[in-house]
Amino acid sequence: MEKNKSVNHHAAEGESHSTWNGDFGFGASDRRFAYSRQASFHQSQEPPHTPISIISNDSMKPLLSRSVSSIDIPPAVYPVEEYEKVFSEKGKDSAEKFSVLLFVLSVFRVVRSGSRPMKRLFVMIWLNVAYSTAELSIGLFTGRVGLVSDAFHLTFGCGLLTFSLFAMVASRKKPDRVYTYGYKRLEVLSAFTNALFLLFMSFSLAVEALHAFIQDESEHKHYLIVSAVTNLLVNLIGVWFFRNYARVNLVYRKAEDMNYHSVCLHVLADSIRSAGLILASWFLSLGVKNAEVLCLGLVSVAVFMLVMPLFRTSGGILLQIAPPSISSSALGKCCRQITAREDVLEVSQARFWELVPGQVVGSLSIQVKEGMDDRPVLQFVHGLYHELGIQDLTVETNIA
Q1: Each residue of 370-396: pLDDT tens digit?
Q2: Which of 57, 128, 350, 378 has the lowest CB atom count within 10 Å?
Q3: What range(s) does the Cation efflux protein transmembrane domain occupy (predicted)?
Q4: Average of per-residue pLDDT values in the chain
Q5: H-only helix segments in 5-60
Q6: β-strands 359-368, 392-399 pairing
Q7: Per-residue confidence band for 61, with pLDDT thresholds at 50, 70 and 90
Q8: Where a domain ends, among 318, 337, 372?
Q9: Distances (CA, A) of 130 to 124, 127, 136, 139, 234
């Protein structure tokens, strides 16, 4: 005979029903949950009767007749035609305008009440949007393909920065019934997206350097110096905004740190790219051969080395690999200590991963000997793994 028990860390500490109500959004004075649990035997003992229309007439015709399967709705009480007329004509246009306006206002409200990095990122996005719009307009008006191409590159980068801002805003939401772990991983996904874009930019710069090596460099001597200098100044403002995260190997204590670091690397990589183009143009004006190949190659390697640690860390979290902050030997030692107990037969399905930076989640299954109490085992297991920093632990006990 086998009995399965699933024990969570929060349940093991004996939380009351008020804690469950707080987790699902029900306060102490909230009547929704209490109303849904009212017992049926408090109802009156009167026999069921057919509901009577509230319209005063002689026939007193019931609203719901037992002999028919339809419900008669008095037109005087519920003007259906007038309701449909109003909402069919005005509802569609007003709803669309109201939804767009509400979304814009909500974004401004959240950014205004947000943290300082969130406000700085909002300013950075608007600076890039203004610059890319001006560059695209000038490129289309003058017929310069280089300006148009660079404007599309900046527009795509603005989209990624906007996604980072959206992740900052959405991650503030509390866990719900659909996303039980919350929305913190959006910031990890945003960091991974930025890192992937920067790797693509590094690859495109390497291809451009190879193209410049194959072709005649005389066609590439006239660089758009004004555009490169302006882009460099805009990106340097962003680097100054996020200067605290301007490191290659940064220790992430929270999910916000990873997102801020990705934004800093994004604007820093764009700054290096602009500086490389300016330096290549200056070397070509001095008559240095293969200057474009050398500068673009160095920029490609620098961007790749700059973003690769972030790419590995964010990708590892999304793939749910073992937490790098806890060594595998420490996890194995914990399993051996649990197995060494006299009331434990086997430990299996031990899985540990990092939900977001700074939050490790784990689960394992323990087979307890028949006739033994599993509560001391659960207390020992939770205390053992909490010392390693695993606060969210789920333990399944099987009693043989």
Answers
A1: 888 889 999 999 999 999 989 899 999
A2: 57
A3: 121-319
A4: 78
A5: 9-12, 17-23, 32-36
A6: parallel
A7: very low
A8: 318
A9: 10, 5, 10, 14, 10
Helix (H) and strand (E) counts in the chain: 12, 4
Considering only residues 261 and 79, tell me which one the structure prediction assigns the higher pLDDT: 261
CB 262 within 8 A of CB 164: yes
- Tell me how far CA of residue 216 lies from CA of 204, 220, 290, 292, 332, in angstroms: 19, 8, 10, 11, 61
List the CATH number of the domain containing 269: 1.20.1510.10
Domain boundary (257, 290, 318) is at 318
Do 169 and 220 lie in a common domain?
yes
User: Under a CB-based contact definition with an 8 Å cutoff, are residues 228 and 328 in contact?
Assistant: no
The residue type of 244 is N
Give the Cα separation of 311 and 325 in Å (integer): 17
Residues 346-374 have pLDDT tens digits of 999 999 999 999 899 999 999 998 888 88
Global pTM reads 0.71
Q: How confident is the model at residue 77 (pLDDT cuts 50, 70, 90)?
A: very low
pLDDT surpassing 80 at residue 262: yes
371 sits in the region (left: phi over 0; alpha: psi -120 to 50; else beta) called: left
